[in-house]
Amino acid sequence: MELKKIIEAILFSSSEPVDVKELRKITGKDKIEVLNVLSELVKDYSSRDTSIEIIKVGEKFLMRVKPQYAEYVEKFTVREFDRGTLRTLAVIASKQPITLAKVAKIRGNKCYEHVKKLQEKGLIKAEKKGRSTILTTTEEFAAYFGLDSAEPEKIKEALKSYLEGSD
Q1: pTM of whole model > 0.90?
Q2: Is 54 exposed, middle or buried (0-12, 13-18, 19+ CB in 10 A)?
């Protein structure tokens, strides 16, 4: 029971997704024990009527406010990305797959810095195709924004319905 509380406290304190390896290192427990506790915590939080959830992001775990409550806590949180970086991300998400050159044409040279930051956060990936670099969103993008699917078409649909609903 103590291990569960320790892992819950770590997830609560971290603003970034936490890797199972990191949890093993901190707790000194084996992978199976840590994964069992994480599975239990995910189940506990999903069965409660609460605004908090624990999600799996790739091979990491994150405790966060459920997307439907995010707007209420926005002013209390530190912005991870500046407005320009978010706009670059929006261009990539809505037009993916898109070349880096096309993003630069739309967003200007500052986008190279934005793309680097977004790649470091795992929200986009860049693949070399000949002389071009093709940008797409990742599963972490979908998890970060609380989307059900990481499929590019589903992301485009979600963006479109969001924009239509915000009129």
Answers
A1: no
A2: buried
